[in-house]
Specification:
The complex is a heterodimer. By secondary structure, chain A is α+β, with helices and mostly antiparallel strands. Chain A has helices spanning 40-43, 54-66, 158-174, 215-234, 280-288, 294-302, 309-317, 319-330, 335-353, 364-375, 381-393, 398-405, 413-426, 428-435, 441-452, 459-470, and strands at residues 4-15, 70-71, 74-75, 78-81, 91-94, 101-102, 105-107, 113-123, 127-131, 134-138, 145-151, 187-197, 207-212, 242-247, 252-255, 268-269, 276-277. Chain A folds into three domains: 4-285, no CATH class; 292-405, no CATH class; 413-470, Arc Repressor Mutant, subunit A (Orthogonal Bundle), CATH 1.10.10.410. Helix content of chain A is 41%, strand content 19%. In chain A, helix 10 packs antiparallel against helix 11 (381-393), helix 11 crosses helix 12 and helix 14 (428-435) runs antiparallel to helix 15 (441-452). Chain B has 15 helices and eleven strands. Chain B has helices spanning 9-27, 35-50, 93-100, 143-150, 167-173, 207-217, 235-238, 261-276, 292-307, 326-337, 340-353, 359-382, 405-410, 416-421, 450-464; strands at residues 30-33, 62-66, 104-109, 156-161, 177-179, 199-204, 247-251, 280-284, 385-389, 425-432, 438-444. Classes of the chains: A alpha+beta, B alpha/beta.
Chain lengths: 471, 477
Amino acid sequence: MSAYKTVIGLEVHCQLKLASKLFSPAEYAFGGEANSRVSAVDLGLPGVLPRLNEDALRVALRAAIALDCEINLRTKFDRKNYFYPDLPKGYQISQFDEPYCRGGRVPLGDGRFAELHHIHLEEDAGKNMHTDQGSLVDLNRAGVALIEIVGMPDLSTPREAHDFLENLKQILQYAEVSDCDMEKGSLRCDANISLMPRDATELGTKVEIKNLNSFRMVERALEYEQRRQQALLASGGEVSQHTRLWNDERGETKAMRSKESTQDYRFFPEPDLPPINISEELIAELRASMPELPEARRARYRELEGLSDYDIDVLTADRHLGEYFEALTKAGAAAKSASNWLMGEVSRVLNENNQSIADFAIEAPRLAELIRCQSEGKVNRLSARKVFERMLSHAEGAMAAISALGLEQISDSGELESVVQAVIDANPKPIADYRSGKEKALHALKGLVMKETGGKANPKLVGEILLRLLS
Amino acid sequence: MVRKGEQSATAICAAFLDRIESFNPKLNALVEVFSTEARQAAEAVDQAKLRGETLGPLAGVPLVIKDVFNLRGQLSTCASRILEGYRSPYTATAVQKLQDAGAIIIGRSNMDEFAMGSSTEHSIYGPSRNPFNLERSPGGSSGGSAAAVSARFAPLALGSDTGGSVRQPAAFCGIPGFKPTYGRISRYGLIAFASSLDHVAPFARSVEDLALCTGLLAGEDEKDSTSLAEPVPDYLAGCSDSIEGLRIGIPKEYFAAGLDPEIEALTKAAIQELEDHGASTQAVTLPHTRFAIPSYYLLCTSEASSNLARYDGVRYGLRRGGDRSLDEMYAETRGEGFGSEVKLRILLGTFCLCSGYYDEYYLKASKIRTLMRRDFASAFKNCDVLVTPTTPTSAFKLGEKLQDPLSMYMNDVLTVSANLAGIPAISVPCGFTSDGMPAGLQILGPSLDEARVLQVAAAYQKATQHHLHAPDLETQS
């Protein structure tokens, strides 16, 4: 065990899922031609004023409720002043000393929780791009609604940081707060890490790591930084407070050019926006409309028959997958069979087509019908796959697809018996093998029967008939 | 007149344009005259009248707007090099409302750069002059608008009042000017100086015109979150009500050292006039008045330092040093684009907001602001309005205070409190000093009670008719 204790805190910026920006009516969607999603307000033209998008507050409050935060009924916006070309007004409208909520917690997945310091609302900045023709600014992103989720320095391993983010993302997606798509920048994370001797009471000097573009990068960068600081401290060195950038290709962090002094943002209350009073009624309304969150859903799935922990994790990773799963069970599919289908055939098709469950072609009640047909023996597994394939491109029920393919399973013992007898008569070699004790020969015979029936024979029934006729 | 058919809008417009052409070179009140657009708009009004359409209450009325307002397709420069050549893609709510009522925008008026100043000397367009004496300042920062109405270039003008920038030039130029309650008129499209203190405020030739205009301007605007939803009464109707029995408070702090004896005498005569018309007067105290100037300058410079950060050479307006480093571009653009008074205030405000000084300056000033609001609230428990002089002196000479910012700032001592408290305040002409310069009487009312302020102002005006005394521009040179 290392002589040092690691202390990690995360700050997560998350774009709210909204049609328009935080203080302007400009629509927002990822991408688009540079500066095509920009209003006079986003440009910071002389004389324009911000107007709070009420939906942004509602969505931000959903995050607060989902993360168990204490909501401040009176909140206000502040200006954070600094110059940068991607910041059109020369200040960012943010929240400084009266954020809309405080506290809160994120589950780590093992029954433990990491505490949050607070969450605040703020506007996003644009993007600077450096080209051969000089530096350009794209303000499409400027003014987009963000929440900044500030975690307490509560995490002690890079793995916990990873789990924190996974669980946070899941909750925010469940609560429809954000897409949390790191590739599109709708979720961004900075990490703080410091090391302290095991017996120390005071936190060590922290280093901030930026340029973390996936949860995996967060974990790797923290692992690297943990080793770096440990080696530095063990050799009698000191950690200086600064910001480092993660280089994923080289697998290392590197110090950013240090600023001459720390930036003074000169926060003061935003005079263009009156303080906001959040009503208890609004909170109650939002609370009532909250969906079931992942932890609660996992607990409920543990009560279902036949699901493994792994099944449960997969089924709850995406809120919509879980909802599809429940639609299957509600329509009569057994939990385990439904889970197997989702994690097998359905996942395969979604992956192949780069789709999410929301785009899936087969409606849950129809897939449930197919699963029922299979468990009731109306089709065997092989046929069920064929039926499934057909249903992907035909909007029809399972029974309709089965009969269209002529795949009704033969479960008529009379009919099957004559086929089995014919196979026995035509194949003396396997029969002899079986009789001399080679159990495997029975499989070959079964296969022949299936082949003879075009795969439609009820395999269980075939086995029984074979045994009976051969005994 | 246009609505009644006594005069065509075209004829009225032409008459005002003629007058502007004759006398604006003497005053430099307007920095741009929209002759073509104004004639076209007047023509359109006459056509509408011919077609029998219902005309708006300001149909054909020429309007001057301060260079601080946005007007689609036109220059909006705040008299600053940094916005030289900047054309706005949108129209300010206040301007739009008057246009919708039929007003014809005839010109853009001079001002102190970014409304920072009390003399209309800090302008890239050069100083404006007082119509009553060309050697004197028309006041500021809305000096161009005040001089224009005083010189009869237009019957109405829009200004902005952050610390007295409409009331002080109104007093200096012998016309009424009115700053309603903070939030009564939308600030959308008014280029910000100090957001929590900036007010859109009109000038007119009479209190009745001001009342009509204020009624058209007032009301909630979804584009300005600080605008108020309270219903807007008929201000004009209230102007004819008697002031019999009204209780008028005289705050003793407004008659302190520095008040010119002639101004004091004119104010006292005005108070006597109000008493003669049945109002009762009583002495009141606003104990935190002595902190008004320091608090005001701490708050307005703090907000200005942030509001003016957007002029960085990146998106619009002046850009210098764009081929060098980012820091050099910022420094050269802002170094060249802003005048000295603006730079001084940005530096002051930046300092006030720095961590370590914030509590001592910004926060303390905010607390004093709260105390001043309470002072007013408690005074208005026993009084309907307060009456004071608008300015400590009449119009000073051009150049007189230019090298002495502090003395310039002290000229706002009687007006800034109404901005800090956000209460309605009007300046009405109350006579002339011995050297023929106008003086203004300030009437302050409780928050949202514009009607009361206008009522008292109208009664005083009716009794005295000082507002009819026009400057003589023919003989001055």
